[in-house]
Every structure is written in structure tokens, then in C-alpha cells.
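Quick question, first post here. What does this chain look like in 3D?
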Amino acid sequence: MQLALFDFDHTVTTHDTYARFLRRVATPAQLARARWSVGPWLLAYRAGLISAEAMRARVTALVFRDRDRNEVTVHGEPFARESLPPLLRPEVMARIDWHRGQGHRLVLVSGSLDLYLQPWCRQHGLELICNRLAHDGRGRLTGRYEDGDCGAHKAAKIRTRYDLAGYERIHAYGDSREDKAMLALAHERWYRGRRIA
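> Answer (accepted):
Ran it through. C-alpha cells below.
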């Protein structure tokens, strides 16, 4: 058996899907506040001064803290069905199809959210490791993730879930610093569309 690991944003897709989902579920007041409170963070992220993990924590708290869990959850499936298809890279979808045809185990490993990645993975036959929103047990979101942010800990989460020694070959596809530890687990590595090993 072989294992194929795929990052999602900018690997399977051409754009960041998390930011698009946040804009879809944010209230008008949150969007107005974001212009002032997130703008400087976004510039710092683009300049490499803060990590993707820090940026995600900031915007996740801003958009999801104290929101009704059900009210946010209902956006996931329509987003996966309507917004994701135009963003998919045909060449990466062909690789996913190839791995599936070979009988390989397929896993999407992402710092994005299960709300829309879970329905997408069901449709395309991939298992999923990703961020899940934490809630307080009364249906209110906390603005944090259950089990911490997956993005910077992809390799550790993969090792926890899968016995890597049991796979004859591991393939990994990624595009960012957060993916490098995941790529290091693989025999065959693809970085930004190019095979590097």
C-alpha cells in the first residue's frame, strides 16, 4: 500500500480558500473591523514577519469567537460545492485521480477548516487532517481550534494517525514552509508543482 499526502491551499487550489470562507461567513460588522485590525497583520504576513499560524489565529478569533456553531456550519457544504471547483488545479486533480486509480490511500492535510474540506474530501475520496473549530459545549464557538492549529504540525498529526512504516512508498505534495516537514516524510516529494525527490 502507498500513501499520498496533499496540502490544499495553493497546492490543490490556485488560491487561499480559508480567507474566502472567512469572508463568506463574517458579519458586516466583522468585515468592517477586519479592515483596520487585520490589515497590518496581513502586511506583516506577506512580508514574512509573522507566520501563517499566527495570521490564522488572529482572523479565526475575529470571525468565529462567540458565534453560533450551527449558523457557521451551514456555510461549509455550499462553499465546497460552489466556490471550490473553479479554484482546483487540473494537474493536481489528475494526480489525485492517478493515485486513486493505483489504489493508494489519499489524505488531505491542511491548515484550513473541516467545515468545507470534509464535504470536498467525501466527494473526491480523500481522508482528512485539518483544523476544526472549538466550541464551548453550548453551541458557541470559542474562536480557537480543537487540538491547536494543524498547519505548523502537519507531520506530527500524520505520524499520530498513520503508521508510516507500514507503507511501501509515501508521496507528498505541498507549497509552503508549513509543508516542509510533511514533505520530509515522503519518498517522492512535490513542491509547488515540481518533483524535488
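The longest helix spans residues 52-64.
Residues 2-195 form a domain with the Rossmann fold fold (CATH 3.40.50.1000).
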